[in-house]
Please model this.
Amino acid sequence: MTSKLTSRFWRTLYYLRHIPSLWFWNVAVVKIDDHESEVAIHHSWANKNPFRSIYFSALTGAAELSTGLLALMACQHNNTSMLVTGLEAKFLKKATGRILFKCTEGDVLLETVKKAGETGQGQEVIVKSSGYNEEGIEVARFLFTWSFKKRR
Model:
């Protein structure tokens, strides 16, 4: 299902069922494969803050999606549960216009899920997502701690 999320139709259905705030903020999946993902959010009325930039929670949601899609793909064929257990964020520049979040740690997530399945032990991994404005300047950096555990 995750690869279908680049289609507006499938993305809308998925968001409305699972993550309605991302639909409201109009977060778009630009690219997704086994190794990396790109997720975009545009500054708009629905995600603005009083400082004329994107509200931090909308940025966090878009960043988490960029890592979460890769985590979902890693768990796709395993009986593994996943959960965010930690978050660290740095806001480096005012987020206006279109912000593109990139996560290139699909291989790390896949290896962690595989290890959780093989050992039966819970595994944690820290995954980075960086957000860039239209000029290619990094405006935000997120570190998400994902926890994976084999379901019984």
Q: What stands out?
A: The mean pLDDT is 92. The helical segments are 8-18, 20-24, 56-75, 106-119. The CA atoms of residues 14 and 100 lie 20 Å apart.
